């Protein structure tokens, strides 16, 4: 029996790149806002950075339910909901007059939207690429670096020529459109689907039978706890640097655009390393 028609399997990868680019706009270019917000309201760096910290916290906490909802309802409606929320939160941040408003708009609402957008593509892409799972995952999240690469100079240009509020308004609208386009690219392959000409590798002689763990079983394993700890430590260190890199350059006397390109340089190497690490992981698994 022939398999039902399915879309080209590179389309979910495109959805992942679009979705992670939106998330890169949200988190990885925050450093360009620190100095303008400090100058506009007199808030300290710590007070401004708290909005970023809240967004990261909400983003991370939403990851677990977003993955489960994606399995239950499909990735598309979850990403659509995230696109609407991230647009509302980012646009609303352009109207803030108080720290609380900034924390709620950017930290809570936009952070919630980003968490909903980020996970479903990562969970979906490997289903279309069972023969290259690690590489597909790396390509899916490459947009985090690309988003920051674009957002740093773009936001700085808008701030210098129009004002920081316009960054939130214009980019927020663009993020909403990008999130919706990402959702349109996502779908789950039919049950039993596999790439043409590919078959799952046969288990090695004498290997124990395997099965997929449930969510509850997974979270109780030592491997899950160790992976979670490793990811937490790596993300903690990376986000600390990323959130302040442009502001540090400006305070050191660099031109704001040059400081923004410093953040972009970090971002482009970040983006390049993601598919490379997926390729290395796949190659290592075959040895």
Question: What features would you describe in this structure?
Answer:
Helix content is 76%, strand content 0%. It is mainly α and 287 residues long. The protein has a single domain (10-190, 219-286), classed as MFS general substrate transporter like domains (Growth Hormone, Chain: A), CATH 1.20.1250.20.
List keywords for this structure.
287 residues; 12 helices; 0% strand; Growth Hormone, Chain: A
Assigned CATH class? Mainly Alpha
The SS-based structural class is mainly alpha
CATH superfamily: MFS general substrate transporter like domains
Secondary-structure element pattern, one letter each: HHHHHHHHHHHH
Task: Sum this structure up briefly.
Helix content is 76%, strand content 0%. The protein has 12 helices and no strands. Helix 3 (45-73) packs parallel to helix 5 (99-128) and helix 4 runs antiparallel to helix 5.
């Amino acid at each position: 029996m022939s398999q039902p028609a399915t879309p080209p399997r590179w389309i979910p990868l495109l959805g992942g790149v679009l979705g992670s680019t939106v998330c890169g706009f949200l988190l990885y270019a925050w450093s360009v806002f620190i100095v303008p917000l400090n100058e506009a309201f007199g808030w300290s760096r710590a007070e401004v950075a708290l909005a970023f910290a809240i967004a990261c916290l909400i983003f991370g906490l939403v990851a677990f339910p977003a993955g489960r909802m994606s399995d239950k309802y499909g990735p598309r409606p979850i990403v659509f909901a995230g696109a609407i929320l991230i647009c509302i939160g980012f646009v609303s941040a352009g109207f803030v007059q108080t720290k609380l408003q900034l924390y709620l708009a950017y930290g809570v609402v936009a952070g919630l939207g980003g968490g909903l957008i980020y996970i479903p593509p990562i969970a979906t892409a490997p289903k279309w690429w069972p023969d290259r799972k690690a590489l597909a995952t790396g390509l899916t999240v490459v947009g985090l670096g690309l988003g920051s690469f674009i957002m740093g100079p773009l936001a700085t240009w808008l701030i210098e020529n129009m004002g920081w509020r316009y960054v939130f308004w214009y980019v927020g609208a663009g993020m909403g459109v990008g999130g919706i386009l990402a959702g349109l690219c996502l779908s789950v392959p039919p049950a039993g689907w596999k790439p043409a000409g590919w078959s799952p590798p046969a288990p090695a002689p004498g290997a124990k039978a395997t099965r997929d763990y449930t969510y509850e079983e997974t979270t109780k394993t030592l491997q899950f706890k160790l992976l979670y700890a490793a990811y937490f430590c790596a993300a903690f260190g990376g986000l600390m640097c990323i959130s302040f890199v442009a502001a540090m350059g400006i305070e050191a006397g660099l031109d704001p655009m040059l400081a923004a390109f410093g953040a972009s340089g970090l971002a482009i190497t970040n983006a390049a390393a993601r598919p490379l690490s997926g390729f290395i992981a796949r190659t290592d698994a075959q040895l």
